[in-house]
Amino acid sequence: MTSLGELDVSIATTPSAVVAFSGGVDSSLVAAASARVLGDRALAVTAVSSALATGELDGARAVAAAVGIAHRAITTDELGREGYRRNGPDRCYHCKSELYDRLAAVAAAEGYAAMFSGANVDDLGDWRPGLRAAAEHDVRHPLVETGFRKSDVRRVAAELRIPSADKPAMPCLASRLPYGAAVDPDALAQIDRAETALRALGYRDLRVRHLGHFGRVELGESDLAMIRTEADRETVVRAVTSSGFVDAEIDDQPLRSGSFTGLRPIPLSIA
């Protein structure tokens, strides 16, 4: 079984590090361990752009404060990259290239020796073009180096009482657009409004898939179970249509992260 001690040893091999920090459970565990091992020689950095959902920056700040790591928000411009706007299967490569370019600039200017991500072993068998961008920027993945799977991450995060230990995955808003549909600020804002409205109703694990004028709501298993009556269903649909969609439906199958891509996982390795 993986252990926190092994993660500490991995992190201790560098004198200082910048952590790519979304506030999700994976990067939160890396940030917590980095703060414990490296102290003020660790910095958590959150990228802010039109693809970041409402409330995520505040959540990241709260987690950083809870685990005791210095935190900073920087602005990234994924939409300035044509490959990202085109929204092909390699969209995440262009997004992560933008992120790591900015993090590398921070690291170089302020003397940080390494960049860390929150990738875990399970990510290696998923469709993750962003890992190629990480390799090109010499980003290290401490959770991969020490064999942490997602279940291990959540277990250790809960033991450490990290606030995001049970936080559902929250990929960027562009992941709600089907490949080939251009990424633009208006579509991202529409998705964000709809998902914010659903969270206000008490749903936590969700996606609103943007299909032109139509929004498809996907909910995690426990959230889907909250829809017991036709009135519940109508309330969800109304929340989405009030956000700018002409019509909406609720998928009867529980949310499965990555199912929207239609791509099979390609096993990856990280040297």
Explain this structure:
This protein is of the alpha/beta class. The protein folds into two domains: 4-159, 3-Layer(aba) Sandwich (Rossmann fold), CATH 3.40.50.620; 173-259, Alpha-Beta Plaits (2-Layer Sandwich). The chain is 41% helix and 13% strand. It is built from eleven helices and seven strands. It has helices at residues 4-11, 25-38, 56-67, 82-86, 91-110, 130-136, 142-145, 150-159, 185-200, 221-224, 230-241, and strands spanning 17-20, 42-48, 70-75, 114-116, 206-211, 214-219, 247-250. The protein has a four-stranded parallel beta sheet with strand order 3-2-1-4, sandwiched between helices. It has a three-stranded mixed beta sheet with strand order 5-6-7. The chain is globular. The two termini are 22 Å apart.
Q: Assess the beta-strand content as a share of residues.
A: 5-15%
Instruction: Tally the structural domains.
Output: 2
Spatial shape: globular
Multimer state: single chain
Strand order of the largest sheet: 3-2-1-4
Number of helices: 11
Report helical residue fraction: 40-55%
CATH superfamily of the largest domain: HUPs
List how many beta strands DSSP finds.
7
Class of the largest domain, according to the CATH hierarchy? Answer: Alpha Beta
Structural class label: alpha/beta
Q: Please give the largest β-sheet.
A: 4 strands, parallel
Please trace the helix and strand order, writing H or E for each element: HEHEHEHHEHHHHEEHHE
Q: What's the end-to-end separation, in Å?
A: 22 Å
Radius of gyration: 19 Å
| CATH third-level topology of the largest domain | Rossmann fold
Low-confidence stretches: 262-271
Could you say what the CATH architecture of the largest domain is?
3-Layer(aba) Sandwich
Mean of residue pLDDT values: 93
